[in-house]
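Field reference: sequence -> structure
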Amino acid sequence: MSLHVVAHGLALLCSFKFGKTDMNRRSLLTSAALAPVFTVLASVTANAKMEQSNHAKPHGPTSHLKIDANPTDKEFEKYPTCSYCGMDRQKWSHTRHLIQYENDATEGTCSIHCAAISLSLNMDSGPKNIWVGDAGSDAEIKPLIKVEDAHYALDPSKPGTMSASRKWAYADAAKAASVGAERVVPFDAALEAAYGDMAKNTLMIRKRRAEKHAHMDKKMKAMKDKAN
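Structure field:
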């Protein structure tokens, strides 16, 4: 509904001179003139409600995640694989991350690379807790520590999990400093580094997976031809 239609309706209301004996005609013309106005008002109200609803609704995939008030309990039973790459999180326990958002929606990833993807997708949901595997632990399955207590050793000369540049976390600052990394940083700086490497790493991963799929397709075709 254009604004000139609304203006025309209001002009009719203002210019029309009503007679004392012409009540039916007055009611009819008044209703006709007001119809466009009411239509616009209804449309504006509906759009405002829709906009308010869209802003109030959290955006991102957290609505599909498991609501978990205690995600570290039986962690690998509930989050066995990474949500984004499918890697076995127990196998990669030294680089895994576990993210609990403010509504207790929880997601497990294999690395800070995939954790960065989760955090970028869920812009309207703040993380309440983030844990990471302690790469410096002697345990076979590395224990989780809070990322605010972690010291990330960044080493671009060595490959990491889902990354060409290693970003391992340590509970012990001395251990982090002893591994020969280029620098040791807190979580926020490590996350920034993960985002900085994202394009390069994504291209690398896509290339590797395409090569793997091509190899598997070739192998399956050879087996099929042999069977025939």
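Note: The first helix runs from residue 3 to 15.
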